[in-house]
Amino acid sequence: MGKRLVLVGGGHAHMMTMENINKFVDKGFKVTVIGPSFSHYYSGMGPGMLGGTYTPEDIRFATKDVVEKQGGIFVKDKVIKIDPEKKLVYMQEGQTLSYDVLSFNAGSYVPMQAVSENRGNVYSVKPIERLMEAAIKLKVFFAQKKLVVSIVGGGPSSAEVAGNVWQLAKKANRYMPVIRIFAGIKGIDTKNNAISKTRVVQVHSDKVIDSEGRINQQLLQQMIDNGIRELSSRNNLVEAWSRYYKDTDVIGMKSFTQGFSALRAGFMPGSLQGHALQLGGAVVVVPEGKITYVFKSSAAGDHPPVEALLAAAG
Predict the structure, then answer these.
(1) CA distance 185 to 153
(2) Does residue 172 sit in helix, strand or coil?
(3) Buried b (16+ CB within 10 A) or exposed e, 43-82
(4) Which residues of 156-188 are buried (b: 16+ CB within 10 A; e: fewer)?
(5) Domain tally, the chain
(6) Both 89 and 13 in a single domain?
(7) Residue 89: what are its φ and ψ, rounded to 5°?
(8) What does the mean pLDDT of the chain come to?
């Protein structure tokens, strides 16, 4: 009987292994991938999906199809317990699975213990599918009334979510929301007004309570006034965020989004060639020796448009 390789999670850390499942199978291994959904969503593009820049299809990778096409087995479930002595994994739906080699890439999650049982309109950002549900409901609300959108967390992701909520409301073209951000630590200094410390300890469907027992008080309106509203005046949020993800960076947001799009299309990365920090480019030279097109990559994953190459080649 062949060895049993079990991969828990179908995310980025397992992509190279999943690309080579057929090689394991050819050598007699039994490969099983356990994941909570048939597709893996790239979390970096989740806020953009919330705002309507991307569709769900743009940001997901067909994990089940990739695994099964190469002779592997995909199990839609979650691992809740491991017995390392017996080499068994226990799953949420009651199934157990034996293994010889076990690899974990289960990803992160948002603890919801502080949320009341009646979660109503409370959405976690992970799993990313929850952002799709939030977008659907927000579009309905934006068409009906003015509302308050509270975001728990003061890191860069909260600003991305806030900006995309604003963009979603702009597209609805009816009622614009009040966006409030709760942060557990001091955040960005916006025009010398440091974001104050407000830690959320309880979340209900109709209110948020902070660490001092206050309801919807001492919120981070400075960030909204100086940040989100400034972004909302731009027609293109990606252009607005270029202040934070500089086009001149070797690795930036563009690198990840384009790389993920390539993975979705079935193009897996190969081994590193040349200098890791050497960016690429393209030059078109026609038969008479004339240079008709020059393209310099501004970041990893930055490629010239095919149409421009064809036009330059005549």
Answers:
(1) 9
(2) helix
(3) bbbbbbbbbebbeeeebbbbbbebbeebebebbebebeee
(4) eebbbbbbbbbbbbbebeeeebebbbbbbeebb
(5) 3
(6) yes
(7) -115, 140
(8) 75
Q: Specify the amino acid at residue 112.
A: M
Question: What token pair was written down for 27?
Answer: 């050598």
Asked if 95 and 171 sit in the same domain, the reply is: no
pLDDT at residue 188, rounded to an integer:
40
Residues 84 and 153 in one domain: no
Hunting for tokens 């942060």 — which residue is that? 183
Radius of gyration (C-alpha) of the chain in whole angstroms? 23
Q: pLDDT digits over 40-88, tens only?
A: 888 888 999 999 989 998 888 889 999 999 999 999 999 999 999 999 9
Residue 207 has pLDDT above 80, yes or no: no
Q: What tokens does 230 get? A: 């400034």
Dig out the tokens for 227 from the structure: 């940040």
Other beta carbons within 10 Å of 198? 22
Residue 242 lies inside a defined structural domain of this protein: no
- Long-range contacts, 77-83 (Cβ 8 Å, 24+): 77/34, 77/35, 77/36, 78/34, 78/36, 79/8, 79/34, 79/106
Q: Which domain, by its residues, includes 284?
A: 253-313
Is the pLDDT at 225 greater than 50? The verdict is: no
User: Is the pLDDT score of 208 beyond 90?
Assistant: no
Please, are residues 60 and 12 in contact by the beta-carbon 8 Å criterion?
Answer: no
Overall pTM > 0.70: no
Assigned token pair, 278: 């050497």
Please say whether the dihedral angle defined by the alpha carbons of residues 61, 163, 235 and 167, taken in this order, is positive or negative: positive
Q: Is residue 59 part of a domain?
A: yes
